[in-house]
Amino acid sequence: MVKPVESVMEYITQRGTVLAAKVCSYQDILDHLNLTRGNEVFTSTRPVLDHTHPTVLYLDVHLYAILAVIEKSQTFVPFIWVQLNWKNERIGWNPSEFCEISRVSVHKDMLWTPDLFIYEMTEKDAYPPSPYLYVSHDGVISKEDATKVISTCKMDIHKFPFDTQKCSITFSSAIHTVADIKLVPFSNSSRATQASREVMQTQGEWEFLDMTISSGKLIFEGREWDKISYTITMKRRPLLHITNFLVPILFFLCLDLASFLISDKRGEKLGFKVTVLLAISVLLLILNDILPSMSNRTPLIATYCIVIFAFLLLSLFETIIVTHLIERDSEHQEGDLNHPTSHTHDPEEDTRCGCSVFTVADKETPSEPTPAEEEVIGAVRTQGESGLLLLILDDLRAVERTLALLANSRSKSETGYWITLARRINTVYFTIYLTSVILFMTFICKEWLS
Prior knowledge:
4-stranded antiparallel sheet; 3 domains; alpha+beta; disordered N terminus
């Protein structure tokens, strides 16, 4: 029968062994590794035992949010999570000797870190990076950090606001060439895309489609650097621009078409078209603040606005011409009222002349004799020749009245000519205008949605 052991020391003595006390603190691991700040052994040089082989860096990037896409300045602002792993060949310990501690966190100033940077970054992140690194027992160093990247991106806004943009974020070392650092993507494109969709916080106006990873070399002055590019593909949600910009311009175009129903004899039609034209001008000023000043191809939305503006401008010119023709006809009517050419006719005049050509003025009244005529009549009467000269005088008056009637009938025929011409111009222009608008809208929609 085994006796109970009274104490641990007695048990150890009985077994003839000595139990060594185990170290169970992170600081003991740091002391074991001789990791202290300012230790140039770990911070000054690349952590390899043989300089002939490079340090392999495993890079992984996840997209957390699309903060802004500024077309005017060609700027892309994503919020990304960057994870970087590499092996430090000078570090390692046995976890069983340190209470199974296999991972510790240290300050980044204690170890060498790669000098990676982003080619497209134009401004430094205002938030400081994480100051700590994870060190594993096998010497693998892990660095994780969240970064707001303010980068440049060459955008194609030809199909704005139905466009799809591709912006790249390229990582490379600043001074270490391919002989020193080799960059390897930790995840493939499909895995990075799926991980980004799972952690995506906000997209705003843009819809994230996928992330493509590609590796390559940067060659400059005979030197080569490894680089990894993460190309983010995103599609714009056009609802805001449709409701705030495209639809109002289309409404103005419809109003201009409807203005052809307004009477041309009034001045309201001309004022209405000028008001619509000014409204389009205000929207063009708003568009100028959105689109960049330089682009490889003219944006379709700019073509859309300019052509509609041209339609409205031509419509305004047509209204001015039609109004001018109508006003010209009105001036003829006012002139006929102010200068009448018809007179009251004395029926007794017709009995004195046998010529049929003078019967046209049978309803006209003879005009008052002039002083010269009165003198002739007086001379004839005094001489006793009462018949012959009076007949000649009456014939001359009949010829004068006939010419006046012909001029009056011609003026009446010309009175409605300009109104008829204006109506024909209005009809022909409206037909051409409506046909052009339908063809243009079909073309622009086909280009946008192709």
